[in-house]
Amino acid sequence: MCQLLGMNCNTPTDIMFSFTGFATRAEEHKDGFGVAFFEGRGVRCFVDHRSARESPLAEMVKRYPIKSDNVIAHIRKATQGRVALENCHPFVRELWGRYWVFAHNGDLKHFAPRLHAAFRTVGDTDSERAFCWLMQEMSKAHASVPSVDELSATLAELVPQVAAHGTFNFMLSNGVALWAHCSTHLHCVLRQHPFATARLHDEDLSVDFAQLTTPSDRAAIVVTEPLTTDEPWIAFAPGEMKVFVHGRLHEPATEHTHFSC
């Protein structure tokens, strides 16, 4: 299946180190890749139907220090939908005057909801179909931009309806928060003071974050499988959704929803 990578920070940060390790996994997942960076209310989204191991676009991302509070990246191994640019994640839509970015790892069987004109698919993947349906149902549930807690509660009702059709690991962001849901495999690590050195699992590359950060910096990294060998990665439980805001786990106000990391 595909591979997911997400980052949520309290200050604009580049993802060059993590993306370098992440891109090596395209050797087995070579049906396209993409990465989206939020910058204020705008989004830079780069996608290519070529493997991240071969794409000049991926090489650019590894070397271009784009700084962002929220990033979602995806490496595709096609299960539904042909290998084509329109089927590459992340997907982007507008809702309530904000951009939303979504990427999915998994396979949804017999998921064919009715979609209205505001949210229609461009490609032919189950992933984009699920994203459009989530956007459609969230727009029905809220007339204007709701709080992170309200959105989390709405997603907690919607996500199981999609996950009932198969594997639904996904990441979703509106540039304020990062929502990550696990059906099978997701892991997270919180990088904060005191920072240490980290070494990539898939590349002979390490970085001393203490030399690149300030004591107030925080970053949450979420990925399908841990990227580094010496950080305290925490596995999500199947069916668990976590929400990250300003580089830390967001604790919802409602007492009925529990998130842990």
Protein described:
The chain has 261 residues and is of the alpha+beta class. It has a single domain, classed as Aminohydrolase, N-terminal nucleophile (Ntn) domain (Glutamine Phosphoribosylpyrophosphate, subunit 1, domain 1), CATH 3.60.20.10. Helices cover 18% and strands 32% of the residues. It contains 4 helices and 15 strands. The strands form 3 sheets. Strands 3-2-4-1-12-9-13 form a 7-stranded antiparallel beta sheet, covered by helices on one side. Helix 1 runs antiparallel to helix 2 (56-63) and helix 3 (126-141) packs across helix 4 (148-163). It starts with a strand and ends in a 12-residue tail after the last strand.
The average pLDDT score comes to 89
Query: What's the level 1 CATH class?
Result: Alpha Beta
N-to-C span: 24 Å
Q: Which structural class fits the helix and strand makeup?
A: alpha+beta
Strand order of the largest sheet: 3-2-4-1-12-9-13
Main beta sheet, described? 7 strands, antiparallel
Multimeric organization: single chain
Rg to the nearest angstrom?
Answer: 17 Å
Helical amount = 10-25%
| Distinct helical segment count | 4
- Total domain modules: 1
Encode the helix/strand succession as letters: EHEEHEEEHHEEEEEEEEE
The low-confidence parts are: 254-261
CATH superfamily: Aminohydrolase, N-terminal nucleophile (Ntn) domain
The CATH topology label is: Glutamine Phosphoribosylpyrophosphate, subunit 1, domain 1
Notable traits:
7-stranded antiparallel sheet; 261 residues; 15 strands; alpha+beta; 32% strand; disordered C terminus; Glutamine Phosphoribosylpyrophosphate, subunit 1, domain 1
